[in-house]
Please model this.
Amino acid sequence: MLNSENMLNDKKEPKVVRMNNLISYNNRIISYDGCPGCAYAGHEFHLDCGLAYENERFTLSQDWELPIPGFMIVAPKRHIEMLSELTEEERNEMFSLADKAVKIMRGKHICERFDYIFEEKENRHLHVWILPRYAWMTENTDDIIADLGVIFEYALCNLRSEDNYREIERITEIVRDGFAAGDFSMRVSESEK
Ligand SMILES: [Zn+2]
Model:
């Protein structure tokens, strides 16, 4: 049994720093301490594509791990795990940010349709996923949401390329510019009018 006395006496006792790792969308090892959502919100790690948008309450960025262009995350900066922990104002803002990101991407013809996914997993920082519905997804499954694992596996096996990483950076840049310009007017594509 360790106790404070023998820890102090044992000079060889290493200092325990519990770091976690994730593999970024562009195959980089990222280390962080504690909750990844809190670490990202606190700028303790970053993605090469950078943030698409942030304010005092939320971040909007490419998904950290999956190399799917335009697959974005809206996350509150404070650590919460359930939707009910957000104030009404925060809740509205979170979905407004998702809505704006999609309007920008749709307006720039990144994709026509998007799914919005969020979970209340135990011990997980709440976030909303914005998942474009690309043709390659429906070629791999009839039900994207039911087969998210299939989609993610496909992306990890087939989309790890420099060209695709540049596409992810390009889309992040488009969304970043869209938020900076404040123009979310392109609600629907020509085909949907
Ligand atoms: Zn957190």
User: Anything to note?
Assistant: Residues 15-183 form a domain with the HIT family, subunit A fold (CATH 3.30.428.10). The CA atoms of residues 52 and 173 lie 7 Å apart. The two ends are 70 Å apart (CA to CA). The beta strands are 19-23, 29-33, 53-54, 58-62, 72-76, 114-118, 128-132.
